[in-house]
Write a structure and sequence with these properties.
Length: 146
């Protein structure tokens, strides 16, 4: 079965940022799969990534028109100092296309963490995965500044 959508989860992006990124992606790839982006709210941060994927895939299979939106305003900047976009796609190139699309339209793109949902990540909560990504990003920034 071919995936009809690319699934993304975001943290720290406004609804406007998400819409700009999605529009940029569809503008670059009008014949490609649709991009669904779900803003992570506090309850979703404690959810296992695999459970969230099952829920989102069920919503898509049921032809629910809009992806659920998390309560992005309820998250403090302390949860992660960076904006985060985590992508699930069938092909690596699709993940890169999502990354390029968001970077093209959002301010301060070097402070956006982009990641892919891996087999390992499926077993983590979003909170743990984002914490891991944040630590990796900090380590890379420290290495680059030397």
């Amino acid at each position: 079965m071919v995936q009809e959508r690319i699934i993304g989860f975001s943290l720290g992006l406004s609804a406007d940022d998400i819409e700009k990124g999605k529009n940029s992606f569809s503008g670059f790839h009008p014949d490609g799969p649709a991009l669904a982006v779900i803003a992570l709210g506090p309850s979703m941060l404690r959810m296992k990534v695999s459970d969230a994927m099952v829920s989102v895939m069920a919503d898509i299979a049921a032809n629910r028109p809009e992806e659920p939106a998390g309560d992005i305003n309820a998250l403090s900047a302390g949860a992660c100092p960076y904006r985060v976009v985590i992508v699930f796609a069938q092909e690596r190139e699709q993940v890169l296309q999502v990354m390029r699309s968001f970077k093209a339209v959002l301010p301060d793109p070097q402070n956006i963490i982009f990641a892919v949902i891996t087999q390992t990540a499926l077993n983590w909560t979003f909170e743990d995965y984002i914490g891991h990504l944040n630590a990796e990003h900090e380590q890379m920034k420290t290495r680059q500044s030397r």
